[in-house]
Structures are given as C-alpha cells and as structure tokens.
Amino acid sequence: MNLWKKNYYGERIKEIRLNYKKYTYIILFLILFSSELKAQDNEIGFFFGGTNYIGDVGPTTYINPFLTENIGEDAENVSNSVVGIFYRKNMSNRFAIKAGFNFSTIQSSDTWKGSADYRLQRGKYFKNKIQEFHIGLDFNFLEFETSSNNFEFTPYIHTGLSLIRFDALHYPIGINEAQAYGKDNDLALPITIGIKMKPLNSFVVGLEISAKHSFTENLDGSYPEFDDSSLYSQRPFGSNLSQDWYVYSGITLTYLFGNYECDCTRWSIKKY
Questions:
Q1: Are the C-beta atoms of residues 233 and 223 closer than 8 Å to each other?
Q2: Which of 20, 195, 175, 16 is CA-nearest to residue 99?
Q3: Burial zone of 145 (CB within 10 Å; 0-12 exposed, 13-18 middle, 19+ buried)
Q4: Which of 91, 212, 238, 255 could disulfide-pair with 222, CB 3.0 to 4.6 Å?
Q5: Which of 8-12, 145-149, 160-164 is the least confident region?
C-alpha cells in the first residue's frame, strides 16, 4: 500500500470514529429525553429478510428479495440476505425512536434475467457485505397502544440516517467480477414502509420494506476511489449522477418490556 493510500485510509478512519462518537451521543440524548415522556414502552427485537440492489450492474427491479440466480461456474452463490437487531422507544401511540444494527449481503449480475441488453453483453458481477448502524423516527398511522391488553394494528413509516461500512470494490483489467481492495464508509438515507401488529401482550410482529439511498457510487465497484486506478483497474462506468440504492424486505419480531402506565379505573375494588 503506497503512502497516498495510508494517508487516505488514516483520514477516513479518523472521520468514522468521530462520526460514531457523534451518533452515540445523539442516541444517548434521545433515549434519556424520551425516558421522561409518558406513555412509553420499550421494545427490543430482530429483523430478518432478503435484499436487492439497484444501480449500475444487473437488473433494476425495485423489490426482489431472495434472488438466487446462478452467476457462473467460478462465482460463489451467495443469497441476498439481511439480519439485524434493534431497539425501539415508544414515545407515544404515534411516534417512536428506533436504533439498531443490520448485517447484509447484496449482489447483482449483468447476466441475470431483466438486465438491459447492453448489460447482458457487458457481463459484470459483484457482491458486497454491508454493516449498517441506523437511527430514526417511526410514525404510526393508527394509534398503537403497546400497554393495552387488546389486539393492536397499524401501518407505519420510518426515516432517519444510516452509517454504513462496506467492501470497496473495483474491476481489475480483463476481469468482469469485482474484487475488494479495502473497506469504505458512507451514509445512507432509509425510507421505510411497513405494518405491525400486537397479537400477544408482550410481542409485536411486523412486515416492512426499507429502501436505502446511499451516498456512494461504489457499492457495485463502478466508481472505485484510489490513486492512479488506471494502472490496474478498468475505468469507471455507469451514471455518476445518482448513487446506489439497496432494499431490505423482511419480518420484524420484538419483545415489549418496561413499566406500563396503570389505568387504575379498570381495577376498582368492589365493596360487599
């Protein structure tokens, strides 16, 4: 690794450490602030599902989880999957703060069904692993009372900010399969829609689709960033006017805990 690379990655590491500290302080502030609000409940849970990518390689289907087409004899067949853990603080029956971590694999190939003709002829393929920390705000379209003993249901939307770490990719000269040359970090903007229900007193089950607009053009290796890449990498391709997208589609399962507000009128004692 030359001196330019060392300086570049050194600066990026310092930058990401500062970002982690900043977002940690934000989370602590929000949790402490929300703990003073009434009608609060806590949830901790899991998310699991499939992923798909939208960008300069392969088909541009917007929602297509669990796509597992054969990529080729020399390529590893990796399912597009995501698993995550998250914490949700319900500030009211309408609003909640949500933070968590996701671990996912995305991949795409120009040879997959649905690709444009020029991509089929080009034959690029990539896979990438993404680690994501996210924080944001949920809004419930219907009042969702987590402390109630009744069945609850609502559609909801979510947005916020994600910090992502992923493989930095490029295409060596004469090779159509992307290769990793390091790690990179960037931000993404999640736009999520979903439905959730509370069939039991302590559990919430949901379905959601989350489209992530990243602020990088190199999840697929089309725009690598290193010194004098022309010596050992193909030149950039695709559009540099829009960043890469990736989509999570899956199921959430959370456990409710914490102190509930008491509706003491329900528990009036009869005198005989």
A1: no
A2: 20
A3: middle
A4: 238
A5: 8-12
- How far is the CA of 244 from the CAs of 80, 100, 128, 182, in angstroms? 16, 22, 12, 18
Structure tokens at 20: 């982690």
Residue type at 114 in one-letter notation: G
Write down the H helix ranges in 110-266. 117-122
C-alpha neighbours within 13 Å on the C-beta side of residue 133: 13
Token reading at 29: 């502030």
Instruction: State the residue for tokens 């705000």.
Output: 137
User: Cα 175 from chain centroid?
Assistant: 29
**Measuring CA to CA, which residue among 78, 64, 56, 218 is closest to residue 122?**
56
**Which residue type, as a one-letter code, is found at position 62?**
Y
Output the CA–CA distances (angstroms, integers) from residue 267 to 93, 264, 270, in the order listed. 22, 5, 9
Q: Render pLDDT for 211-228 as a digit per residue (tens, 0 to 9).
A: 999 999 999 999 888 766
* Domain annotation for the chain: domains and CATH numbers: 3-71+78-260 (2.40.160.20)
